[in-house]
Specification:
Blueprint lengths: L1 E7 L4 E8 L4 E5 L5 H10 L3 E6 L5 H4 L2 H8 L3 E4 L28 E4 L4 E4 L2 E7 L8 E5 L2 E5 L2 E2 L2 E2 L9 H12 L7 E4 L5 E2 H7 L5
Parallel strand pairs: 3-4, 4-5, 5-6, 10-13
Antiparallel strand pairs: 1-2, 2-3, 7-8, 8-9, 9-10, 11-12, 13-14
Helix pairs in contact: 1-3
Length: about 210
C-alpha cells in the first residue's frame, strides 16, 4: 500500500488516499473540500475508488463526500455517533461559517471499535477515539495511523466544540493510541505527520 495526501480547503484538512498498487484500487479518507479537484486527481491516475473513510463528521472533513459518491457510487464509513453530521449543518459546524455543508448519501456504513476494512492485502482496523466529536475514530494498519483530529504533531483535537470532551479524548489517546508501537507513523487531519513515540514523549497535552 502507498499513502498519498493533500491538504484541501480553507482549513488545510489532510485528505489521504490509500492506494493498492496491485489492482489500482484506493480508499479515500476525509475528503474535506475541493471535490472536483480531488476527483480530477483520482481520475488522472485511473484510481478505482472503493470507499470513503471518515474519521469524524465535521464539515472540513466531509465537504467533498457527495462529489465523490456521485462520481464513484461508493460507501461512506463513519461512526454512528457522528451520523447526524452528514445531514445537519448545525452539528457539523458548517452553518457557523455560512456554508451549510451536507453529505446526504444512501450507502452509509457505521463503524465501531475493532471493525476492519480491507484494501487488497491491507487491513484497516477501527479505533474509537471520541472526545473531539462523539463519533471520532482512527484507522490503523500496521505501522500507520490515520488519526483525524484526535492526535496532531504536538497537539490534540479541540474539545471546546459542542459535545467535545477532553477527558474522553485524553483517555482514548493514552489507552488506545499510545499503546501502539512507538514507530507507528501518525497521519493527522491537519499539519505534518509524527510518530506515536514522539507524541508520548513530547506532546504537552497528553503524555
Amino acid at each position: 500500500m502507498k499513502l498519498y495526501y493533500m491538504p484541501l480547503g480553507a482549513y488545510g484538512t489532510n485528505c489521504y488516499i490509500a492506494h493498492n498498487e496491485a489492482d489500482n484500487t484506493c480508499l479515500v479518507t476525509d475528503p474535506g473540500d475541493e471535490g472536483e479537484k480531488l476527483k480530477d486527481i483520482l481520475d488522472s491516475h485511473d484510481f478505482k475508488v472503493q470507499g470513503i473513510l471518515l474519521t469524524h463528521g465535521h464539515s472540513d472533513h466531509i465537504g467533498a463526500v457527495k462529489t465523490l459518491v456521485d462520481a464513484y457510487h461508493v460507501p461512506v464509513y463513519i461512526h454512528e455517533g457522528d451520523a447526524e453530521c452528514l445531514t445537519n449543518p448545525e452539528v457539523n459546524l458548517s452553518a457557523h461559517s455560512g456554508r451549510y455543508i451536507t453529505a446526504e448519501v444512501n450507502d452509509v456504513r457505521y463503524v465501531k471499535e475493532g471493525d476492519t476494512i480491507f484494501l487488497g492485502d491491507t487491513t484497516f482496523t477501527v479505533i474509537e477515539t471520541p472526545g473531539h466529536t462523539p463519533g471520532g475514530v482512527c484507522y490503523y494498519t500496521e505501522g500507520t495511523l490515520l488519526a483525524g483530529d484526535t492526535l496532531f504533531q504536538g497537539s490534540v483535537g479541540r474539545t471546546d466544540f459542542p459535545n467535545g470532551n477532553f477527558e474522553q479524548l485524553s483517555k482514548g489517546i493514552k489507552e488506545k493510541l499510545y499503546t501502539l508501537p512507538d514507530d507507528t507513523k501518525v497521519y493527522p487531519g491537519h499539519g505534518g505527520q509524527t510518530t506515536i513515540g514522539d507524541e508520548k514523549q513530547y506532546n504537552p497535552f497528553v503524555r
